[in-house]
Amino acid sequence: MKPGVILLMGLPGAGKGTQAFRLAERFPNFVHFDTGGEIFRRVTDPAFADDPIIQRENKRYFNKVLNTPSWVTEIVSERIRYYSGQGKGLVFSGSPRTPPEAQAVLPLLEDCYGRDRLLVLEVVVSPETATERSRTRLTCNNKLCRYGATLEQRGKPCPECGNPLPQEQQDEEKWKYEGMADGTRIREFEQLTQPAMELLKKRLTHARIDGEKSEDEVFGQILTAVEKNLS
Length: 231
Prior knowledge:
Shape: globular
Strand order of the largest sheet: 2-3-1-4-7
Strand content: 5-15%
Number of helices: 9
Order of helices and strands: EHEHHHEHEHEEHHEH
CATH class: Alpha Beta
Number of domains: 1
Radius of gyration: 17 Å
Helix content: 40-55%
CATH architecture: 3-Layer(aba) Sandwich
Largest sheet: 5 strands, parallel
Structural class: alpha/beta
CATH topology: Rossmann fold
Number of strands: 7
């Protein structure tokens, strides 16, 4: 398939990351662009430990506060240009997270790929489903992978990179669940990310995906939408 951009949007815990990995496997010329993973790698990289900006963003990240939009946009823009130059398509899982990010990134995506090669897929789940999924989530410790798994898979080989998955849920995932359970992350989504998604939907082709279905059924819906709009 010709390179393009697939933007998977929805609540934390909707399964966007899992589906993004599957899309990147299905279409080898597409790269899963995990903005959350890029942020995590940057704020925990020892090479940047003395950078005051990284120190600020590290504090925001681990205090369950969204990172500074302008800083996130810089990282995202840098990587978009790189992958576009390599002839790769992109699969985003949850980004852009705020209206300023959307307004900054969208023109770049249109310039690099063309508006007709951009597709927004809204993965819809209830807050209850998203919270329950977050309760059992763990993440591959390989910073270059960051595959999202469940506690049922603990200790098993990561489906993406093959490294052993953690034996227990990491603190990072625990506080993400706490943020879902107390409503913090859901409110942030409704106040910031949902408006960004609506902005994208007004400009781009979009489709609704029922994220309450099984993983395979959700992937089937996504493939149908991709083949209809990007083939």
